[in-house]
Specification:
mainly beta; five-stranded mixed beta sheet; 2 helices; single chain
């Protein structure tokens, strides 16, 4: 007999109860018991402590039955105890640190070293199946893994990228942390171990020769004998497979000075402001030479040969001999002397010279202030209802700096008389004229007369020593006349908030408006829907009907303010009333549950889940409903249990239900203030099922005829068709008889012809 027992189980475990013939009084156990297996005189075989497969995987035992004189009456019977493995041993690397080396450009995937680990668990089970992986690579350049490991054998090789990029000059060594896991590495309960791997990168002995140099335009005899002149070299094994990447052979052509310097462009342009200090840098002039960089053939020298015009003197500019930096050499420039200068620059290397053209533009600086053509623009009278955006005045100043630059552009700013920002000035970019426009409504009641002062200024700052003076300022007098105006609300939108259960007639807010001319104002509502009413004199707003947040949580109405007397002008504003929630709606089912069923007959108690909701506002914690059966008489058959704040489970307590529809009343309490409770009915059908769906025979439905009615309708239809065919047939026979008679009569009166 063979028994299988898992190692590591509880200390005392019953294995088998043996029985013998009536002569046996006791049993004896022999063999590889290891003081673990025991047998009672009654024949009960058991273990006294946990087994360990790694100590002994199989125990061979013998059991014999003895009589009262200790004589064998049955047996001995061989017993085999197989100890089944559990994952109780972690894998272990054979050494904590490994060392290896690899040559650069070695073939990817070809192992150059191995790491090994062992696991005492059964290798025939997942417990002893090992999985290797690289956890860390140091250094890790550009997040690329240069090494790879076979997850079953522990063979380490170069990846494709490592085969291409390993370089002992850049990184002569690498360190890997390698992990091994049991359970094939696929189980979260796997045991693991790690080891360190040091790898030395050795130089590839398969390498390109040194550069071969050839002098260009050489006058040596041809052909030239070039040794080791190979562009590609490939090393292969016996099967013709490449052992390494092909080598590229480079030939270096030695430079001679056969290219003259070239100018960066046909004309190189620099700009310099007038009044710049002596020695100021204007720019760097850089020419080019196609000969080899950083050699005597490409070193360039710069020199100014000519300046035009030579005003106010020659030699105004200086150029650095090697860097090409252009500077002011004599004095500051003035645009009035010359707006631009042309320079001829000589650029030379050791054998060639090239002439380049440089243009220096003198940029005007802001040393002239804007001057108004007149300082007082007189009086201007406007009605207070003058439209916003209207141009009411044109002002003009001039500037002596260069036209169409930041030094001559003029900006106009109001410095006095318009604290409310009613006016603005736009500048014409071509003429520098200033157009005074209305930006905000004029108001006779607050500012009937204003003294407006303008300042003209440039966007560019003035140079040191120059300042704006009275010539840059002008003024005019603005007179505003009265016009009858509509009332003005204190704000465009009025807002208020009340609870949805306020009694009818409760004040919920108020609005205010004033008439600029001081007339009384009357208030009214528009688009009200009879929810609200307003006191026409005070502007107080009251509830006029019950409010319900669940119907409308935000009421918007237009408030109209009309002046009393005068022209009865009016204006409008908006009043917004938001409602806060009170607990005035009982819970209900979240949807219409009409398709709930259990397959009849029940094989075991079953359950279904339903959801509740509430029309009131959800709290930050969400709904917290409680659920209960609506009738105590159902407690023996049904049970309701809460899942969360909105869902509950309805369960059957037995299987003895009839095949019909049960209406189950459910009480749902919202736990609010005050708490409200809803009584809902959940229809549950017990029916025969076909492929998991409820099957119910269709009964007779209104509008669908029975079988007898269908047969009667069909026979009646056939009878009517037969009558119609008979009438048609008789009519055809009659018509044919008439035709025969007429033919006979015609033959009697018609004379015979020979």
């Amino acid at each position: 007999m063979t028994f299988s027992i898992y190692e590591g189980q509880e200390s005392t475990q019953v294995i088998f109860q043996f029985k013998a013939n009536h002569f046996a009084e006791t049993f004896v156990l022999t063999g590889e018991t290891d003081d673990i297996f025991k047998i009672e005189p009654s024949g009960l075989l058991y273990s006294t402590r946990a087994l360990d497969r790694e100590t002994r995987a199989t125990h061979h035992l013998q059991i014999a039955a003895l009589d009262g004189n200790n004589r064998t009456v049955e047996g001995p019977v061989p017993i085999i105890i197989e100890v089944k493995d559990i994952n109780d041993n972690r894998p272990m690397f054979l050494q904590p640190k490994y060392e290896g080396s690899v040559r650069q450009n070695s073939r990817p995937g070809k192992p150059f070293m191995y790491v090994n680990a062992t696991d005492l668990d059964d290798p025939a089970t997942p417990n002893g199946q090992l999985f290797y992986e690289i956890v860390i690579q140091l250094p890790k350049i550009n997040n690329a893994m240069y090494f790879q490991i076979h997850n079953k054998t522990g063979a380490i090789s170069l990846s494709r990228q490592g085969s291409q990029e390993l370089d002992p000059v850049k990184n002569p060594s690498y360190n890997l942390v390698v992990s091994v896991k049991d359970m094939g590495g696929q189980n979260e309960h796997s045991f693991s171990d790690t080891a360190s791997v040091d790898i030395t990168v050795m130089e590839n002995i398969w390498k390109a020769p040194d550069l071969v140099e050839i002098v260009e335009n050489s006058t040596d005899p041809h052909p030239l004998k070039i040794t080791q002149y190979v562009f590609y070299a490939v090393a292969k094994d016996e099967q013709g497979k490449p052992l390494a990447f092909p080598l590229t052979i480079s030939v270096n052509v030695k430079d001679i000075n056969d290219n003259p310097p070239t100018c960066p462009s046909a004309v190189t342009v620099f700009e310099v402001q007038e009044n710049e200090r002596l020695g100021s840098s204007i720019g760097i002039f850089t020419a080019h030479d196609m000969d080899e960089e950083n050699t005597i053939n490409s070193i360039l020298k710069y020199k100014i040969l000519e300046q035009s015009p030579k005003v106010p003197m020659d030699g105004l500019f200086l150029m650095d001999e090697y860097q090409g930096r252009l500077q002011l050499a004599q004095q500051s420039l003035r645009k009035q002397d010359a707006p631009q200068y042309n320079l001829t620059v000589e650029v030379s290397d050791k054998d060639f010279k090239t002439l380049c053209s440089v243009l220096v533009n003198v940029i005007d600086i802001n040393d002239q202030i804007p001057i108004f053509e007149k300082s007082n623009y007189g009086n201007l009278t406007l009605p207070e209802d003058t439209a916003i955006g209207s141009t009411i005045l044109t002002i003009q100043a001039t500037d002596g700096d260069e036209p169409f630059t930041g030094s001559s552009k003029i900006l106009y700013r109001i410095t006095q008389g318009d604290n409310g920002g009613r006016l603005g000035v736009d500048t014409d970019p071509k003429t520098n004229a200033g157009y005074v426009i209305i930006k905000k409504p004029l108001d006779f009641e607050t500012e009937p007369v204003s003294n407006i002062v303008f300042q003209a200024e440039n966007p560019e700052p003035l140079v040191s020593g120059v300042a704006y003076n009275a010539s840059s300022f002008a003024l005019f007098h603005l007179i505003v006349t009265d016009v009858n105006e509509a009332p003005l609300f204190s704000q465009n939108i009025f807002q208020a908030q009340v609870s949805e259960d306020v009694p009818i007639g409760t004040k919920v807010g108020n609005v205010t408006a004033r008439d600029p001319e001081g007339l009384d104002v009357r208030y009214s509502l528009r688009d009200n829907m009879n929810w609200l009413k307003i006191d026409p004199t005070t502007g107080e707003i009251f509830s006029a009907a019950p409010l319900d947040r669940e119907t409308t949580n935000l009421h918007r109405v237009q408030v109209v303010a009309t002046e009393v007397g005068g022209s009865s002008l009016r204006s409008t504003s908006e009043f917004q009333l938001s409602l806060t929630d009170v607990n005035d709606n009982p819970p209900r089912l979240a949807k219409n549950y009409t398709g709930l069923f259990f397959c009849y007959p029940l094989s075991a108690p079953s359950s279904l889940i339903f959801e509740a909701t509430d029309d009131d506002q959800r709290s930050f914690r969400g709904f917290q409903f409680t659920f209960a059966l609506g009738s105590d008489s159902l407690r023996n058959d049904w049970e309701v249990s809460k899942i969360n704040g909105t869902h509950a489970r309805l369960s059957t307590k037995h299987t003895g239900f009839e095949e019909r529809v049960y209406e189950i009343p459910i009480r749902i309490n919202d736990g609010g203030r005050p708490p409200l409770e809803g009584l809902v009915s959940l229809p549950v059908t017990f029916c025969s099922c076909v492929e998991g769906s409820c099957f119910r025979p269709a009964g007779r439905q209104d509008g669908i005829p029975s079988v007898g009615m269908a047969v009667g309708i069909l026979l009646t239809t056939f009878l009517i068709i037969g009558i119609i065919l008979a009438v048609v047939f008789i009519r055809i026979r009659k018509d044919k008889g008439k035709d025969d008679a007429q033919g006979a009569q015609a033959s009697e009166v018609k004379p015979l012809r020979s």
